[in-house]
């Protein structure tokens, strides 16, 4: 009987994860202006401010911590983290393994190249060209599907792609238009570069997703409800609009 009770208790623990007093929230801090580390090692950025506001509105105690991109979703599924905020796009493939909050933004995706490159952003124009992209992202899946004749170089962080672009080892990179415009192009390294080619959204390709949301564990529907309540509150009280204006002038 004791052994049976212990087994049942273990099954309940797996089905309904117990929250720590403080929620552990992971972010890939290599993607300014959404999330990065400042000179003092402090997490800063749009998503950091948004998550902080959601936690406050939902009366949740939250600890946002930097994490490696490729370990975030596995860490969420294994219970290492309670939530992820890192410009995560909602896709059918991801919905199979994790839950999402309500969508809070709909990103536009663009390529960036040297101003004098004259590069043609098309399957034929990028044939034989090198595209730098962060691995495991919607952009990675998009260029793999849409530009089969291109050479694709994949990187673990969102910032590393620009090092090969500016070093002449890649012809283009692709990212969120806001990330390129409000981070890379404003840096000294981005002076000779410009956005190029079409603007892409999830309507152009399923790989680019439905929009951006906070990722949560499927086994924790109560936390999903709490986070959605916090999101709804910061929409209603103008906090979300103020954040968009502060970071992007929208």
From TrEMBL:
Official protein name in the record: Transporter substrate-binding domain-containing protein
Keyword Signal carried by entry: yes
SMART domains named among the record's database cross-references: PBPb (SM00062)
Lineage: Bacteria, Pseudomonadati, Pseudomonadota, Alphaproteobacteria, Rhodobacterales
Top-level taxon of the source organism: Bacteria
UniProt family annotation: Belongs to the bacterial solute-binding protein 3 family.
Gene3D superfamilies on file: Periplasmic binding protein-like II
A Pfam short name: SBP_bac_3
